[in-house]
Amino acid sequence: MAFTAAPTAAGVPAPDRLSQFETDFAGKRRRARRAWGVGALIFALLFGFSAWIGDFFRVTQVTMPDGSRDWRWIIPAGIPRLGEYIVQTFPTLHWDTFWSDFANWFWRWKIWLSLLLETVLIAFMATTLGVAGGFLLSFPAARNLSPNRWVLWLTRRFLEITRTVPDIVWALIFVFCFSVGPLAGILAIGTHATGALGKLYSEANENLDMRPLEGVRAAGGTWFDQIRYGAVPQVLPNIVSYTLLRFELNVRSSSIIGYVGAGGLGQEFRIAMSFQEYTDLSALFLIILVTVIVIDYGSEKLRHKIIGLEERT
Amino acid sequence: MSLTPAQIEAARARAPQAFETPLSLRMRRIALWTGFALLTGYCLWAFDVSPLRIWTGLGRLGDVLGFMFPPYVWKSWAEFSEILKGLGETLSIAFLGTVLGAIVAFPLSFLGAKNINRLNVLRLGVRRGYDVIRAFETLIIALIFIRAFGLGPLAGILAIAISEVGTFAKLFSEAIENTSTRPTDGVRASGGTRLQQIRFGIVPQVNPVILSILLYNFESNVRSGTILGIVGAGGIGFLLSDRIAAYKWDEAWSIIFLIIALVYVIDYFSALIRARIIGNWEGVK
């Protein structure tokens, strides 16, 4: 053992212990540095490779100020174009003719408002669908509640598939099946929400206190009775809070899902993009931004109120 | 031993709510459910949802599901390399988007943390800025970048980076706010400047949290990276929407299952990395 030497009178370690420490420390430092170096190298390689795949080093043709064409790297060439594009989306608002300019900016407001209503209603219906589906499937998908292993496995795989496939891909599929319109959007967002909510709910179920369920079983309750009177009252606050969060996410999803033809404001984005109605884009941005902020704020207030109520009783 | 009626009466007097819900609560519930039913009914009417439409749609969905079998298998290298390139693009979009977003968000997050930035006005302003960035959908940002940088993965990378700046800055600054002041006090006591307090007192505390946020968001960005291609911002989504538009359902389903497999693999590896690097860290949460 290297640590048998007694400390000297002043509490200073003996020289051999000190040198032992020094070598140990140096070794540890060297190993740490080597690990860092290897990690940084792997990271740099990944970064470089992804940057190469991601077109960072592509060159593109740009028009120079004197009208000639020249080759430039894509990022420095694109940034001025991006700036121009964003500037074009700003409406011309003059102070003295503010209201007519404003009306000009939001010239399609009647259509947009009805589409906004459609967007929110799509989100509402999709949330309802997702809550219903996720709630029903969350009990067979919870390890502690599932009636048997096969049901557990099947529901879990089903929930995984529905939530891994993005809602816009579901929309592409459902637009084919149910034709263009809000129905496809509802089903698409609802399917995705079923998977996402089913996972969250079933995790809430797995954290249940099992004693109430045992009580119901002891009193002769069936599996359904156990779920109904033992599990549901316990998970209800969690469910409400996840549902409100999901509603916010669904409003965002439904605002863009129209891009593939599934109803809501997204289709106006597509129209404005293809007709190069730049100021429409900023107007649509504003509409969605305000809606999302209002819904975020409202559901946060509601959630706090509900959770607060639960804590008091 | 059974209960006598008198005992039941006594229990009812002690806890009336266990036997009957009060009228006001019942009325509120009825009102809530009626409102819900009316709204649902209105939606069904407004969106023209009829049983017939659902039925025909489900029939076609059944057809589409039927096309899953036999699943399409890419035989030649030319076909297969295209799919592989799409997957690689999706991964590089998610990776670079996450990394670039984090690089920009890290310094910004200190501006939004209560224990670093003591100027209330500036801090709250910066925080609203994060919220505004998060309010924009990644897909819409991608559409704008496509105009500037052309079709391809670059637009997708920048779109994810921008939207992640808002998310990361918020999450990082919350992590910074949750740090303990004792390490900072120690650095100050031994004469450290403000910058050194941050570097040696706060950064080591938040590093594991930041790493776990990064891994988690990388996973979620792989998911969102798969759809950016639908609007033309590169990745596997372009191939998928292309196959669906051409009604090549068997190939589309194969791509969907490939995406699911990819997400699985990434979940697995990031869980591995998280366990390796962070372990069961019980520091700042």
From TrEMBL, chain A:
Q: Report if keyword Zinc-finger is assigned.
A: no
The UniProt GO MF terms for this protein read: ABC-type phosphonate transporter activity
Compartments (UniProt record): Cell membrane
What membrane topology was assigned to this protein in its record? Multi-pass membrane protein
Which superkingdom is the protein from? Answer: Bacteria
Ranges of residues in domain ABC transmembrane type-1: 116-299
Going by the UniProt record, its keywords in alphabetical order are:
Cell membrane, Membrane, Transmembrane, Transmembrane helix, Transport
- For this protein, the parts annotated as crossing the membrane are 35-54, 111-139, 168-190, 281-299
Indicate yes or no for the key word Transmembrane helix: yes
- Family, per the entry? Belongs to the binding-protein-dependent transport system permease family.
**Name the UniProt record assigns to this protein:** Phosphonate ABC transporter inner membrane subunit
Species source reads Celeribacter indicus
Q: What is the lineage of its organism?
A: Bacteria, Pseudomonadati, Pseudomonadota, Alphaproteobacteria, Rhodobacterales
Automatic annotation (TrEMBL), chain B:
Q: Which CDD domains match?
A: TM_PBP2
Q: Which Gene3D superfamilies match?
A: MetI-like
Q: Which Pfam families match?
A: BPD_transp_1 (PF00528)
Is Membrane among this UniProt entry's keywords? yes
Which terms in the GO cellular component ontology are assigned?
A: plasma membrane
Intracellular or extracellular location(s): Cell membrane
- Tell me if Transport is a UniProt keyword of this record: yes
Question: Where this protein primarily resides, as one coarse class?
Answer: membrane
* Membrane topology according to the record: Multi-pass membrane protein
Q: Name one GO molecular function term.
A: ABC-type phosphonate transporter activity
Going by the UniProt record, its keywords in alphabetical order are: Membrane, Transmembrane, Transmembrane helix, Transport
Q: Where are the transmembrane segments?
A: 30-47, 93-113, 134-162, 198-218, 225-246, 252-273
Every copy of the ABC transmembrane type-1 domain together lies at 87-270
- Which family does the similarity line name? Belongs to the binding-protein-dependent transport system permease family.
Official protein name in the record: Phosphonate ABC transporter inner membrane subunit
